[in-house]
Amino acid sequence: MDAATKKQLKITACKVRMGIIESVFNAKSGHPGGSLSAADFMTYLYFNKMNIKPDDPAWEDRDRFVLSKGHISPCLYSVLANRGFFPVEELKTFRHIDSRLQGHPSMRYTPGVDMSSGSLGQGISTAVGMALGAKIGGKKLRVYTVLGDGEIEEGQVWEAAMYASAKGLDNLTAVIDNNNLQIDGTISEVNSPYPIAEKFKAFGWNTVEICAHSFDEIEAAFSEAEGFKGKPTAIIAKSTKGKGVSFMEDQVSWHGKAPNAEEYERAMSELKAALAELEG
Amino acid sequence: MADAVKIATRESYGKALVELGAVDDKLIVLDADLASATKTGGFKKAYPDRFFNTGIAESNMMCIAGGLSTMGYTVFASTFAMFAAGRAFEQVRNTIGYPHLNVNIGATHAGISVGEDGASHQCCEDIALMRVIPGMTIINPADATEARQAVFAAAKFEGPVYLRFGRLAVPVIFGDDYKFEIGKGVKLCDGKDVTIIATGLMVNEALIACEQLKNEGISASVINMATIKPIDRDIIINAAAETGAIVTAEEHSVIGGLGGAVSEVVCETDPVPVLRVGVEDTFGRSGPAAELLHLFGLDAKNIVEKAKKAIAMK
Predict the structure, then answer these.
(1) Does the reported pTM lie above 0.90?
(2) Which residues of A fall within a CB distance of 8 Å from B92?
(3) Catalytic residue among B58, B125, B146, B251
């Protein structure tokens, strides 16, 4: 990846993070931790990878995206808004009574949302359905889905993983946002999702392990997924929950709570400083 | 009527899918490893490229169906009612119902007439479960003729549809001139003393009950209520006004199904006695289907008794 592209991606990811904080602060609820951990690969997907048309969200041949970990809707909405699907200003309406931005993604409310999600474990199955549909129809489009590392405790994830490899859905890429934290503690304290890559391998997937905050590694992983034939690819993205806001980083308490006014100011000033440095 | 040809509604479902497959190349059928039982096997044979056995994983199948429907396909997803409405309830609710996708759920082996497999597979709760999902359409055909028309109607219908089929061969009561329409009850007999509103295989029992009542000097209307949601309010309100007493009959729990739906309409309009024939809040058990239906009171005899009781309550 050339330096200019990387710089632009970092700038965009920083703006996406600001949108996440704006959304959650104005909603007085929502999930900042996992939204921030996913912000870099989500930015890469929507700005440098997926074949989409913000002015024609229903374009038939677009690549599809399913946010299986639907609770990080602030991340998806911020990416969509920054990409031009709707005004960035609208992020401030997140979770409000008259908003198009529902607590969890709804395809009936929000332009750019390809599938409603929120109940963990179901999104990956719908992505399998889309990938299957694309194959049957001879469409070249690709299907992306993002799961949480806690989410893979849901049995349905493995039903979907088994079937995706049985059908050789190499047009499907799943990213597992491996921030190591779920509501009640580390994922190892709660259950035993590790080793994640080995589990997907055992289910017949190609796997890539990356740092979720390195655009070089993100790009390499999505390129490999696109070129890999015969199997779906799982990208296990080792991330930091709360990434980009110092006091939220690696803190499970920021899984699902909104910053107060003072915390909001601190978070935004950190992100503004980071943005100024990038743009400087 | 005793000599009527008997065909299971699931057989009719399977044949209708094959017919539809010929005219709609966007039709896709999914099954969770029960194609020989749900009768989607015919479609599999005719259109192997458009049939997918997603394995014994019903929750996954329902969501795959949702994903496929967003790609412009007409999807039918089949398994037993127990697993379609029971195991996969939340998937149907969140990933098919909430986004209001064009997924048709072909649920077979509904009700007590599953027979020997016993209570674990006799789903008498599916109508209740599906009724509470906003925007869900529920169709419970009475015979093979109606089942075929219901499949064609569902394929054209915008939004999710739950189609309920039985394992047991039941009398064919409608000819080719019968016209099924989603959301419309059909009056089969006109009477003045009581109205029997029946669905599924209980429609035939209702017709037998009507004859028996006639022999005892009681004039009964019979309504076939194939669509349980959206319920045909007008035909219920008119029946209440015309006969002043109603008996519902369904191969389902008396809670939350047709009896519940009819009672809600009647209670909120111009109340008359409504008595329900159905499974009385209990689990089923193993046995031959025909014997089970009598054991659980799903027969003309029980309808006749309830009809007399309802008339006495006027």
Answers:
(1) yes
(2) none
(3) B58
